Q: What sequence folds into this?
């Protein structure tokens, strides 16, 4: 009997030892495995996740633009340390010249350039509404507004988007492809980027205007202080060098969407317009508007150009030249329009004004007039733009001309006192027009 109890005691002792060993082994595995990904990311900034591509959706007047296909990277969190993302991320440094970033191949797309750096950290040094200088080393240097998205800046202008809570930022242009403008591609990465302060709060007024001022209406009663011509955004262009009854601009005389088409068409007939330059529509879409056949417009010469709203693009510039050549080939008076007669028309007319010798002040006043004809309708009545707001739009047109010319290799260092006529001739030559064609266009407008 004693022998049997000895055997039982021995078995009991072995069982306890086995259980104890099992517990010790479990603890050792946890130690060897180390911290989970959630622990490492809290202390190791070198494992910043791939940026999630933002939704850059609604933009005004962009129906002809084909948005690029974007692949959103997988940012799923993993607790298994064996699957932690080991893709190298470039360190951000700071010195007297500013913050230094590196763009790797995964940070470069055709439309945006990403900065793999937390927006919250960036916004401890800069603020929304600041203007910054962004140097792309070996490529170009641009001025950008620090804002949430491209809708916070006017067409053709640059933005550095920093949104609280995001682990990344991106640089872009309103209706354009920044990497293509700069000539940066995945193949020539990495690219160094240096961000420094240009003007503290330099875009605060613009931010307020872009977010709050551009309300408009489709009823003449909402604009009691405007004439019918102003309501239709119809006017003769009479800047220096352009002759009387030669060139007009307006909102669309055929598109019903704004409620202004009948007024614009009637005013064009009264002015005797013989040639229309339609920047917005293709021939098929333009002739499909209800009542088109009954318009004065349909009886005249029409160039249907269907321009997108990317002033930097090859497509826009090629079709712009087609429009100018159409003017050379057909008698005036001419009327240029898009939908609103605002962005595409504003740029197209500004180029013609500059070519004919207009002063900077003349170009600015004509451009800003359009925004006074549309903006700040509140509770069914228009409130006139303030002097500061008008000044903002005056600055936009010269900045756009300078930026687009610069992208084509034409430098305009001082926009206020520039020889805009000479710069514009060079720009049109870059776009493929001959000196003879440029001279013929000028003759048409004298």
A:
């Amino acid at each position: 009997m004693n022998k049997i109890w000895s055997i039982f005691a021995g078995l009991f002792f072995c069982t306890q030892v086995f259980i104890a060993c099992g517990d010790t082994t479990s603890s050792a595995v946890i130690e060897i495995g180390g911290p989970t990904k959630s622990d490492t990311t809290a202390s190791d900034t070198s494992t910043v996740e791939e940026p999630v591509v933002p939704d850059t959706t609604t933009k005004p007047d962009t129906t002809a633009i084909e948005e690029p296909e974007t692949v959103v990277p997988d940012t799923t969190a993993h607790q298994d340390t064996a699957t932690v993302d080991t893709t190298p991320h470039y360190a951000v440094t700071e010195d007297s010249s500013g913050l230094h970033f590196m763009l790797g191949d995964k940070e470069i797309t055709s439309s945006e350039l990403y900065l793999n750096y937390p927006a919250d950290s960036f916004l401890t040094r800069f603020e929304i509404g600041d203007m910054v200088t962004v140097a792309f080393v070996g490529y170009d240097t641009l001025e950008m507004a620090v804002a949430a998205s491209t809708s916070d800046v006017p067409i053709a202008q640059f933005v550095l988007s920093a949104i609280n809570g995001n682990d990344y930022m991106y640089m872009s242009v309103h209706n354009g492809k920044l990497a293509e403008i700069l000539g940066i591609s995945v193949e020539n990465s990495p690219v160094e980027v240096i961000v420094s302060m240009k003007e503290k709060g330099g875009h605060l007024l613009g931010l307020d205007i872009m977010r709050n001022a551009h309300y408009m209406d489709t009823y003449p009663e909402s604009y009691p202080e405007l004439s019918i011509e102003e309501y239709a955004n119809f006017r003769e262009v009479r800047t220096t060098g352009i002759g009387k009854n030669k060139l007009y601009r307006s909102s669309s005389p055929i598109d019903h969407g704004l409620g202004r088409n009948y007024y614009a068409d009637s005013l064009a007939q009264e002015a005797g317009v013989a040639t229309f330059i339609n920047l917005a529509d293709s021939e098929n879409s333009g002739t499909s508007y209800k009542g088109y056949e009954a318009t004065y417009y349909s009886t005249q010469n029409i160039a249907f150009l269907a321009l997108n709203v990317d002033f930097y693009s090859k497509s826009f510039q090629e079709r712009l030249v087609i429009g100018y050549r159409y003017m050379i080939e057909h008698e005036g008076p001419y009327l240029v329009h898009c939908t609103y007669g605002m962005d595409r028309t504003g740029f197209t007319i500004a180029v013609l004004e500059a070519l004919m010798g207009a002063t900077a002040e003349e170009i600015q006043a004509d451009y800003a007039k359009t925004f006074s004809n549309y903006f700040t309708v509140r509770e069914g009545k228009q409130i006139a733009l303030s002097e500061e707001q008008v000044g903002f739009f005056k600055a936009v047109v010269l900045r756009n001309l300078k930026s687009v010319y610069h992208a084509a290799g034409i430098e305009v260092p001082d926009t206020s006192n520039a020889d805009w006529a000479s710069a514009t001739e060079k720009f049109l030559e870059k776009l493929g027009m001959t000196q003879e064609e440029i001279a013929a266009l000028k003759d048409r407008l004298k």
About this structure: The chain has two domains: 84-210, 213-445. The longest helix spans residues 2-33.
